[in-house]
Every structure is written in structure tokens, then in C-alpha cells.
Write a structure and sequence with these properties.
Layout lengths: L1 H4 L8 E5 L5 E5 L10 E5 L8 H11 L4 E5 L6 H12 L4 E7 L2 E6 L8 H25 L2 H30 L1 H6 L6 H32 L6 H27 L2 H4 L1
Parallel strand pairs: 3-4
Antiparallel strand pairs: 1-2, 4-6, 5-6
Helix pairs in contact: 2-3, 4-5, 4-7, 4-8, 5-7
């Protein structure tokens, strides 16, 4: 039955892959595999709570569906249209391809195997390191525009984070994706997922710092210089921990992590 289903003939080549649990996968070599295309359909009239539609769109994205259709029998509320636009702008290669007053079609054009997951995490690390440094600098130099730039960059961190989650979920479902995105073993998927979440959280906290900096700079009371000096000392300690732990992860250096 399997031979017939895969259209194999005498003399065709097969590939055998060994799994971490000792089992084997037998795959036809050079024969295009049928790809299941799943279209998700969402009734926006049922999304009465704020951000529910945002979370549905994000969920459809990270489990790798290519097409999402959103409809409304009574016509879209302005809030729903704003939610749709804002959400897809925060997701890599997600675009509206069709729209009218009661129907939106969204396509996911991303090729998740185009990037290495670890490389994307390294990008988040570099961005968040800058965000932390820029927040302190904005406070020291009274630069509100620099703090605003930190807030802007948090959106970029989120966009990269959701792409990493998409990659890891696909790798969990399809072992052939692992090597393409730089994951050496299935055992590393859960750990990488945890690290990615922590990196994303650091971006959130850096944004919180920038918001507080703006609040201080907008107030009638200038920040105390000795307090700024203490904050800078604390920042340098935190940055050292962040640098060494993250670089230890990227290089699998146990001494640096320790």
C-alpha cells in the first residue's frame, strides 16, 4: 500500500533516516511529497473580546498555515480591521491578498527554513543588548528620542520571536526541518524555545525601562545624578551576566555559562 501511495517503481532510491529514539524513517528520494494545505476560516463576529483576533492570527501563523480567511456577516468593525492590520505588520511575510467590507484573505509567504533559528536568536540578543544600553544612555543624556527608538525596536524583537516559534513548531512536526534551521537534535527544540522566550521577555523589559525613562524626562524633577550612577553600575553587572550566559548558549561553552 505504501509503495502504491508513493508511486514507487522497481529501481527507485530510498533514504533511511535514524531518529533520536532509535527508530528509522524510510523516505522516497527525489519524489515530491504531497503537501497538505490547510485553510483556516475565522468568524470575526465571534471575536468579541479585545485582542482575541490578534491571538488567533498569531496562532495560525506560528503553526505554519498558509492561508487565513476572516469574515463577518454584518461587516467588519473598525476595531477588527485595525487589529488585523496591526497583527500582520508584526509577523514576517504575512500579507493581506484580498479584502472587502466583510471578507479578508491573509497569506503566509514566509519560508521558515531560509533562516537559522540560532542566528535569529543572536539577532534578538544584539537588539536587546542595544535596547538596554540605549535606555540608560537616554536617561544620562536626556535624550527622549533615543528612548522612543527603544520602544520601536521592541516590535522588531517580537516579529523575529514569532518567526523562531514558527520554526521550532515545524521542526517538532517535521524532522527534516531541524537541520535546515540549525537545530542539531530534537532534544534541543524545547530548550531553544525557552531561550527564545527569555530573549523576547528581555526586549519587553527593556521597553518598560524606556517608558519609565520618558516618564522621568517629562517630569518637572530632573533625575538625581547619584541615582543614575548607581543604575549605570547595576546595568554593567546585568549586561555582563547577559553577555556571558547568552554567548555561552551560542557557543555551547559550559565554563562561560557556569
Amino acid at each position: 500500500e505504501w509503495v502504491r501511495a508513493t508511486n514507487l517503481s522497481q529501481g527507485d532510491s530510498l533514504t533511511i533516516q535514524q531518529n533520536d529514539d532509535g527508530t528509522l524513517n524510510i523516505l522516497p528520494s527525489g519524489i515530491p511529497q504531497k503537501k497538505e494545505v490547510v485553510k483556516c476560516i475565522v468568524d470575526s463576529d465571534k471575536c468579541k473580546k479585545p485582542n482575541l483576533l490578534t491571538r488567533i492570527i498569531t496562532g495560525v501563523y506560528i503553526i505554519g498555515h498558509e492561508t487565513l480567511e476572516i469574515y463577518s456577516k454584518k461587516g467588519f468593525e473598525p476595531e477588527h480591521l485595525a487589529e488585523i492590520r496591526k497583527t500582520i505588520h508584526g509577523l514576517t511575510d504575512m500579507s493581506i491578498v484580498e479584502q472587502d467590507m466583510s471578507h479578508v484573505v491573509i497569506k503566509n509567504f514566509v519560508d521558515p527554513t531560509r533562516f537559522h533559528a540560532i542566528g535569529l536568536m543572536r539577532i534578538i540578543y544584539m537588539i536587546t543588548s542595544w535596547m538596554q544600553e540605549a535606555s540608560i544612555q537616554a536617561l544620562k543624556e536626556n535624550r527622549k528620542n533615543l528612548a522612543n527608538e527603544v520602544i520601536h525596536m521592541e516590535k522588531e524583537v517580537d516579529r523575529i520571536y514569532w518567526l523562531i516559534i514558527l520554526q521550532l513548531l515545524l521542526a517538532a512536526k517535521d524532522k527534516s526541518v531541524e537541520k535546515k534551521i540549525g537545530i542539531e537534535s530534537s532534544q534541543n527544540i524545547v530548550g531553544s524555545r525557552t531561550v527564545a522566550k527569555i530573549l523576547e521577555k528581555i526586549g519587553d523589559l527593556a521597553e518598560d525601562i524606556a517608558i519609565q525613562v520618558i516618564t522621568i524626562l517629562d517630569s518637572d524633577y530632573p533625575p538625581d545624578q547619584s541615582a543614575i550612577d548607581d543604575l549605570e553600575k547595576m546595568f554593567k553587572m546585568i549586561q555582563k551576566v547577559y553577555d556571558e550566559s547568552t554567548k555561552g548558549f551560542f557557543s555551547t561553552n559550559i565554563n562561560m555559562a557556569n
